[in-house]
Amino acid sequence: MSLNVIDLIKGQLGPALVSQAASQFGESESGISKAIGGLLPAVVGGLANNADNPGVVDAITKASSSGILGNLLGNSSSNPIVSNLLSSIFGDKIGGLVNSIASFSGISNTSAGSLLNLVTGATAGTVGKYAADNNLGASGISSLLHDQKGMISSLLPAGLSLASFGLGAENWFGQAKETVSSVTSTAKDNLAEGVATAREHASEGAREIREQFENNNNNQGGGSIWKWLLPLLLLLAAAYFLWKQCEKKQTTTTTTAMSDSASAVSHTDTASMGTTAPAPATVKTDENIDLNGVMLKGYKGGMEDQMIAFLKSGAYKNAADDSALKDKWYDFDHVNFKMGSAAELEAGSQGQLDNLVAILKAFPEAKIKIGGYTDKTGNEASNLKLSKSRAEFIKGALAKAGVGAQVIAADGYGSQFAKVDAKASDAERAADRKMAVRFAK
Predict the structure, then answer these.
(1) What is the separation, in whole angstroms, between the first and last Cα of the chain?
(2) Full-model pTM
């Protein structure tokens, strides 16, 4: 499986940097996090699309020793490496990219522009450092960037697309489009050829029957019309059937070939320990979730929506004891830990923790438990320790936010409840690596 460089870069764009950027730019942390989530795949895609540009590869090589990673907020905007890279990979489309990100994340264009510089600096610095650490020359960097092309479009957050940046897939991944067009053209040619062949066979059959009819008339002096009409009708029916079968076969070939070629454009595997599974086929989008007149951002039918509905229904108040509540867990949709860590959250996680705090403050009688889970791989003792530490971390974060009294326990279950086989792919096992919460008494 190809290395996903976005996973490397995320380490430079964690919660601490999001918080600092929000303070420096005067924006919300959730807005900054959303903007970074949109900019990162766009910038990596831009580099991938220019993987054969010597200037771009040279800039990445120099970035590793420029010190840019040491002060992303301070160095990115004025760093010539960043400005040259942006000009090379986006050209006159920078303005459109900034506008789209600002609109998507709810921050100002000025802040979006500054974040574009920051993300570009983090990307160039991280890729450059990886190349230096692994002794990759110019060709190695170019190959690494080429490998990212098939991943980019699927990593964009819901609500964003390459087209929304003015960077349509037909411009960045033209080869894939040409492949689909070529297959379509070939299939159409085959279909036309098959239809023509069927028609030719029908015409030939009709000619033979006509000759036979004329011979019979000459030898027998005429006869019943059915002697020649019935065979003719049967042959025409057979010819029509052959024509439709040929048409059906060729249409099926066209559809299948196009699907196979198109699916090859966007294969990716981004799951890692502590992260959620790859985006499902039905893309989820954050919506307004009503909390007694206060609107929280979350998935319709997601954790917040389900918890609020449960509390409003009176089911919590009416629960006789903890045993009536213990089987219903609510999985976090956005809270993810960095790989192998129990103390560092991925960017974008804080928003859902804030939502949980708001729910608990709105229903002060409610008590909860936190649960941590892992997949079936690795040492079980280590899995139990990691899952427990992560649950304790979330409990501590809620305590700092003023609702600690409502969190009565934080437990780690390791792989006890994991459902996916240890031999399954990393992407499949990601469903078992999660954090969850349940109501308790």
Answers:
(1) 46
(2) 0.42
